[in-house]
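Cont'd.
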Amino acid sequence: AQTVTQSQPEMSVQEAETVTLSCTYDTSESDYYLFWYKQPPSRQMILVIRQEAYKQQNATENRFSVNFQKAAKSFSLKISDSQLGDAAMYFCAYRRYSGAGSYQLTFGKGTKLSVIP
Amino acid sequence: DAGITQSPRHKVTETGTPVTLRCHQTENHRYMYWYRQDPGHGLRLIHYSYGVKDTDKGEVSDGYSVSRSKTEDFLLTLESATSSQTSVYFCAIRRQVNTDTQYFGPGTRLTVL
């Protein structure tokens, strides 16, 4: 079974600094997708970034980038120039094929990020 | 905004009563999902649908049933609610074009007393 582990329940970062959130996963598949979702206090789940396993290049979205290490099964999220609005729960998720053309997401337990002014 | 609404947004009910949560989408996506979110567990898949009348179980399906009679609506039913089903419930759709990624609704907070 696929599992996703986020080993940091809570983290904090100074405004304008850089922070890295960790995620590891377990899989026997060679082709899969990985995601980071952000959940602010509003509770809305917001897609931050996604990575296709077959792509060597790390995904980037503005201030957000990932360090994808396929052999190590590691998928960390780096947030540069942290802003107060980045304060949220961050969830790592693994997408696997579940049959009938459908895919399922398995989520980690989340990392709560605080941004200090 | 993925064009997903959930109703109700908040509900308080008593143990043993039936409860139905509704997820409505406006973009005609084939795949829809129901998750629950609990402290210390992240999001866990309850059921999903891959078309009208086509549904399957997820990781935590016991005590829940679903129905999808129209593309735009995916209903989650708790036949007899229990306190362990107190949770926040999220619906999601899967956008296949370009991104093939799941997008989530705003969530429903359900409290079972």
